[in-house]
Amino acid sequence: MSKTIRHEAADAELRGLEDAYLAWLEAAVDSERALHHWFDGAPREHAPLYAAYRAALDREEAAAAELERLSGTRSGRPAVRASHAIHGHRYTAARVRETPHQGLTG
Questions:
Q1: Is pTM beyond 0.70 here?
Q2: Which of 24, 74, 80, 85 is most buried by its number of CB atoms within 10 A?
């Protein structure tokens, strides 16, 4: 493969990774907003707000999985761990799901 073609392929891969990172970042912001709406909502609104939060969290998880797939963090190849390296995020959607929130859905 010529040097130009390798460079173009690397640029395309980086653009795809950047797009995936931005999609994840937008989904993360949306899920955080949904979480705050759920916490701040009136008791009669908790059930639909919780459903909206879980849907936003599912979108964030999907975007994170795509970012992980594109960055190669599972494949063992050198990875650009964009979400961790750039912003130092240490939580995962799974951790949030494991956290009990008694009284917020009723």
A1: no
A2: 24
